[in-house]
Amino acid sequence: xxxxxxxxxxIHEYSLRYPEKFWDAIAxxxxxxxLYEKVVEAHHPYYYWFKGGKINITYNILDIRKNSNxxxxxxxxxxxxxxxxxxxxxxNLVSSFAGALTQLGLKKGDVVTIxxxxxxxxxxxxxxxxxxxxxxxxxxxxxxxRALRERIEIAGSKAIITADVGYRRGKExxxxxxxxxxxxxxxxxxxxxxxxxxxxxxxxxDLLDAKKVDAVLMDSQDPLFILFTSGxxxxxxxxxxxxxxxxVWAYYHVKWLLNFDDTSTFFSTSDIGWINGHxxxxxxxxxxxxxxxxxxxxxxxxxxxxxxxxxxDYAVTDIWTAPTAIRxxxxxxxxxxxxxxxxxxxxxxxEVLGEEAWKWLVELTSSKVYVIETWGQTENSGFITSPGGxxxxxxYYKKGSVGYPLPxxxxxxxxxxxxxxxxxxxxxxVIKSSAPAFMSxxxxxxxxxxxxxxxxGVYLTGDYGYMxxxxxxxxxxxIDDVIKVAGHRLSPAEIENIVLSNEExxxxxxxxxxxxxxxxxLVVFASLKQGFLPSEELKNKIxxxxxxxxxxxxxxxxxxxxxxxxxTRTGKIMRRVLRALTNNEELxxxxxxxxxEAIEDLRKRLGEKIGKQGN
Length: 615
Description:
single chain; alpha/beta; eight-stranded mixed beta sheet; 18 helices; 27% strand; disordered C terminus
């Protein structure tokens, strides 16, 4: 038996058998002003971790390193700008800006919305809020005015902080027009980080003259941040993570996988507007005395070699990315013009990577770099499965799997009646345990919070998949994406992998189209790599491969070639939008859509009468 697997399983079993003992030992590795009275108090479905404890996440990041010249953040922009922040400088900037927020009247429990590009000042803002107990509500800076206003209003924000501009693909993007329209008639404190000289409200740099303030004592249960996720319909959900449990989990699970040393540089490509940007681009890495690299830009601009150049320039050891970025780079071929010998691991999250993308990365890096997948959600702080970790000795990866549950995470597969299924049987992925990873609540929304536990009495992830004989998890898609054809439950991910095995295909998505006889039939959407053109021959080839490899139960209605698939800004394919277009239904909330051009392209391909205008 693999020694990494043996150790991982032993730790996991111990954590489930003795959860309080396990998490107590982890929590004591951090600084507490006052140690908690109880490791966990359960009032299902609410769990109160480290009850009675007093802690501040920024003390554990900055105060214990306030004289350290180690680099906390390297930063580059696509326009050539470069900056670096040591822990010492970060401590001074955060302490001063936290003092400025206090002088402006903001206090513990208030909410501040942050709408920022990936620049160093964004890190300062998040940490400054956390330092004084102000709850930050980071909204991805690609959201439009309606989505931004909705998140400001639901959160009850007292202030908004933004930059005047950002940069993407050589274009200057103005944020102030969006801010003006989104905040019309709202009484908010406004702060601007001026990059091109424009300021609304207070100038961020002028505020840095404020007197430094100490970290505020926070109760373990106090909210650290709100992070909104979009449902398929209705208003977005404000996921709340509390300071005590989030600090413990962010510290431990990043240590588990990455286990930084003095030579480590971690290139986290996740935007702070998402949970991975909170846990890996900021808190989890900094809690582990890590050195981060941020890049303001996209993977193929100013050229498709830019990420590999950054890896060489900063001696990057690990990179955190998403499948959409990998598939984008695949379009440009299999050549690296830079020395990436420092690279130890490429970790992918956010969507199923797929066999072809995994194989491409392995071959591209000459099998010298670990290429892994992890899995998790906003609701549980980031990844909660991984194929081992460097803290326990290394990686034990299985192709197609997102790994083994982390300590404290008890994953099971249930059928639709709540019966636990044996290994290698597909069903609903649930989590039977609580852990510090989990959200403490949804912001002012008890009803929707309880729905996570309503169906089975345990946490329903909303994902569909199976576990193998060793307990490794395989994700086959969202439960909502599973398609029922003539009574058979078909996984889009499995069929998509067959489509992606064709060298011509860059990306693919499969959805159900309503059918009077079979209930549903399948429609395949596929985009092509550069140099390939759509044809009936290619369509027939894909159809025959699906039939051969998946079986006749996969009844294909059509294969539609498109320029691009509709994706969220984290790279997840919006299958519900494809499903709605295919079935001439309302598109629902489109606030997380990356490019609306994708919708127009789809309308053209499907016909002008397909799909009704969404929000």
